[in-house]
Amino acid sequence: MRTDSALKFGWFFLSYLFHIGFCVFAAVAPPIIFKGKSLTGILPAIDVLSNHASVGIFYFVGFGLFCLESLISIWVIQQVYMYFRGSGKSAEMKREAARSTMMAAL
């Protein structure tokens, strides 16, 4: 990403935000998309803890790891954003967007 264009940074931010969203979703694990006990979030952990205490503890460990992954991912995207803003790529991205808008208008 350091040697490529601002557009590559944009794709990175978009895909990494999707990754962070999934990690937060997996940490909560509501029974919306993945029905059952496929993600080790807080909601399945509470549900499983009442029947099988040992399995519930493993689910809480998974919940903690997903929370840790979410926090580390937020820190990483913040560091990459600070690099992006400091390297002048954001100004280049604005120029590219303006140039592509002009070309589309013509």
Q: Main sheet, how many strands, which sense, barrel?
A: none
Intertermini distance = 31 Å
Percent helix among the residues?
over 70%
Shape: elongated
Instruction: Assess the beta-strand content as a share of residues.
Output: under 5%
Low-confidence stretches: none
Name the helix and strand elements from N-terminus to C-terminus, one letter apiece.
HHHH
The total count of strands amounts to 0
Please give the count of helices. 4
Taking all residues together, what is the mean pLDDT?
Answer: 83
| Overall radius of gyration | 20 Å
Class from helix and strand fractions: mainly alpha
InterPro entries: SCAMP (IPR007273)
Family: Belongs to the SCAMP family.
Protein name: Secretory carrier-associated membrane protein
Membrane topology: Multi-pass membrane protein
Account of the 3D structure:
This protein is an all-alpha fold. About 75% of the residues lie in helices and about 0% in strands. The chain has helices at about 5-30, 40-50, 55-85, 90-105. Helix 2 (about 40-50) packs antiparallel against helix 3 (about 55-85). The longest helix has about 35 residues, at about 55-85. The protein is elongated. The protein starts with 5 loop residues before the first helix and ends with a helix. The model has no long low-confidence stretch (mean pLDDT about 85).
In short:
The protein has 106 residues and is an all-alpha fold.
List keywords for this structure.
mainly alpha; 106 residues; 4 helices
Structural topology:
Elements: H1 6-28, H2 42-49, H3 53-86, H4 89-105
